[in-house]
Write a structure and sequence with these properties.
- It is a single chain.
- By secondary structure, this protein is of the alpha/beta class.
- Helix content is about 50%, strand content about 10%.
- The chain is built from 13 helices and 8 strands.
- Helix 3 packs across helix 4, helix 7 runs antiparallel to helix 8 and helix 9 crosses helix 11.
């Protein structure tokens, strides 16, 4: 039988068959290259998006923590929300130190940012009154647009009122640039702040100046008492030396009736030296023991006074008596509480 088939050729020898070439053609190469490039581009795009998200998160965190600096037009920065920690701002604004600061900013620009916080009414100054004032003076004197904006940190996160007061004084306290009278005035101003929930100046000294040594806080409390008792009759509070102020406050606390005579004497002063001499004389004079009626008259003159009954703290003002206690008054029967208040009123009416 012939080895050929009907088509006229025999079986192929396997050794004569060459393997089929599998080389990628031009079109396949182009497709593969495009796919590889697309895959690489997708990975780069995913990585870039991840980095962008991380950068955005870091920026938002820095912004919330006040670590981002921005330029704010001076006219958009207000200073009326917090009382300043300087007693004589007009003297500070015309001082030699202010002129030195202006010369530095004029020559080298504003190197240290101010700090502001956001309110419904816009930006409010927290720190940097001297720098802001220097820029305002430079703009007014020169008209240079370089001084039309302030470099500032912005606190966008929520902050309590007590935190704002602490931040405001922290910088100057650390530099020991505030007098005891100025530190005391900050506590008094905070106590009169409607958002401070009725806390007294004596208590606020412990919160605003918590980082200071307890002896310094004691000095500040002495000046708080001095400023509250003497008021505007003490014309140059910043000039009162620490030891002298503490001695005068201690003497007034032991005999409040003496405050009337001291206030009358202070009306005659013409300068810090006269005031210091009157205070020194007052501190060294031997006085009579306090009388009950005289003490009552002084308490009526004072803006307020505080005392403790057990664990309860009582703050008395004109037309107001506030009691801060651990007692949950809502849990006390209303009739019992009313009976206690009526007894309180009966004692007052009989006094």
């Amino acid at each position: 039988m012939s080895g050929k088939n009907k088509f006229g050729f025999g079986p192929l020898d396997a050794g004569d068959v060459s393997p089929r070439k599998r080389d990628v053609g031009p079109m396949g190469a182009a497709v593969r290259e495009a796919a590889s490039s697309l895959n690489e581009s997708s990975e780069n795009l995913v990585e870039q998006r991840r980095l962008n998200a991380a950068d955005a998160k870091a920026f938002r965190l820095a912004q919330e923590e006040g670590r981002v600096l921005i330029s704010i037009p001076l006219d958009e920065i207000r200073t009326d929300d917090l009382p300043r920690d300087r007693l004589d701002l007009s003297a500070v604004s015309t001082s030699d130190e202010m002129e030195e600061l202006k010369a530095s900013i004029r020559e080298r620009g504003q190197k240290e940012p101010i700090e502001v916080f956001l309110t419904e009414g816009g930006y409010q100054l927290k720190k940097g009154w001297r720098r802001l004032n220097a820029l305002q003076q430079l703009r007014q004197e020169s008209g240079d647009v370089r001084f039309a904006k302030a470099v500032a940190r912005v606190s966008e996160g929520p902050a309590s009122r007590i935190d704002l007061y602490i931040d405001m004084v922290e910088e100057n306290v650390i530099r020991e640039d505030l007098s005891f009278a100025e530190m005391a005035q900050v506590a008094i101003a905070a106590a009169n702040d409607a958002d401070m929930e009725g806390q007294g100046a004596d208590e606020l000294v412990g919160r605003i100046y918590a980082s200071l040594h307890k002896m310094k806080r004691s000095y500040i409390r002495s000046f708080v008492y001095l400023l509250e008792v003497l008021g505007e009759d003490l014309k140059f509070p910043k000039a009162v030396a620490r030891n002298l102020g503490v001695e005068v406050a201690r003497k007034l606390q032991s005999n409040p009736a003496l405050s009337a005579n001291l206030c009358n004497a202070l009306l005659k002063v013409e300068g810090p030296e006269d005031q210091a001499e009157i205070l020194r004389r007052f501190a060294t004079e031997v006085s009579e023991p306090p009388s009950e009626k005289a003490g009552e008259r002084v308490r009526q003159k004072n803006v307020k006074y505080e005392f403790h009954v057990g664990s309860a703290k009582v703050t008395a003002r004109r037309g107001e008596c506030r009691i801060l206690s651990d007692v949950d008054f809502l849990s006390v029967d209303r009739r019992r509480l009313q009976k206690a208040i009526e007894a309180f009123q009966t004692v007052l009416d009989g006094a």
